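agent> call fold_tool(seq_1)
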Amino acid sequence: MKCFFEFLGTLVLVLLGDGVCAANSLEKTKGHGGGWVVITLGWGFAVMCGVFIAGPYSGAHLNPALTVGLAIAGKFAWNAVLPYVIAQLLGGFTGAALVYVFYKDHYDATPDSNVRLGTFCTMPAIPNNCRNLFCEFLASWLLVFCIMAFSLPENTAATGLGASGAFPVTMLIMSIGMSLGSTTGYAINPARDFPPRCLFSLVSRREKVSCGWGYAWIPVVGPLLGAAFAALTFNLIY
């Protein structure tokens, strides 16, 4: 049951998150050209919806990096990591597939394959693997570290986090996107990048377009390393 809600929450997260990217980027949508602020707001609210859906039942990790980070910090059982990660990856793929079906006419109307790719997964504004990896590492470290800080008893008592835990995380996602997201597109979550990239690869296989596979490891490795370091630093500090 917990894995089902991780699947469902991640599905909704990617459906709404990739959905706002599609609305902003694809040709002939009514939201075309909405801009970066719209995207960061959309992703923040997407996470909020996923957290409200899955939170009462699975804890709403919705992110393999967060799951691994919590396990390293001793806050989550290691034997549940793999089932959670599989559910998250499947949710990300399904959410991306629904976006593709929903916006199919607009994908067909958009000739630029890089634009279409960008609605599913991240690519760097300036390719530089070392710096791009650092950007994903730092943003993911901040994400996981702050989520752990939100759960401290002192913060829970002060903010009523048990009843409104989705709202601080929503604000955090928006802040990371606006402040640290414009270099790489802030994947900060392998489940929101790798499965949708696979989906794009499948639907565009006849076109033989680039899916950015040479870059694809960075939005996976960077968040996982950042989450691991967040767990270690959190335990060291607190």
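agent> call fold_tool(seq_2)
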Amino acid sequence: MKKVCLIMAVVMLGFVALVSAQKPFAGTIKTHTHIEGTDDPNILSEGESDASIQIFGNYTKMVRTIQEGFGITSISNGDTKSNIVILDIMGMGKYYIETPAEKILEAQKTVKYDYNKTGEKKTIVGYECEKVVVTITDLETDESKSFVEYVTTALNVGENINFAETPGLAGYALRSEVKQDIEGTEVTIITEATEIIPNKKLKAVDFLLPSDAQDIHTNPQLMKMLGMGDDEDEE
């Protein structure tokens, strides 16, 4: 009898360990962005920014303050493969722009994604990451652009968390390096995680559209200010 109880205890411990291992990561990743490749103080100061990204399985929510009185929250849902951007403007309220799955998938049909896993490793905030060169090619023009991401598979994020930007890439990027021409100078924009804070209290409900946010199409004046014209309305 004791032997049976011992076997059952071992089985139950194994089951608990399996369930725990399968739980998706829930928490906040803090990031810092800066620019390298120039000594221009104006460009360097413009490129400095911090962001806070909440993650729960296939969900992400990034909150950024663009300037005083103007913030942007981006919510990505890998389960439905849709995106929502919420503009929080002092004196005007909150307005959202939703991009449904059909629109995202339709755009991706004209693009090819290649992921070159280099095998080069880098440890970022305690997580081992692999350097991946991402190349995105426009199939209509054959034009391509490449950038670097350092991806970790140790966070146990959802398999569709990258559905919008890098579909099919497993893991989560804790560092990105993007080359860009700014006023005739090629610089590298680097975004890297500075802290990872687990938070088991996060739930899927925390990634829903705020109840006080309005569809941006209800405010033509704001759409005009943002350069969203007739083409946006027709889509």
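agent> summarizing second result for user.
The domain at 28-227 is CATH 2.50.20 (outer membrane lipoprotein receptor (LolB), chain A). Confidence is low (pLDDT under 50) at residues 1-21, 231-235.
agent> awaiting next instruction.
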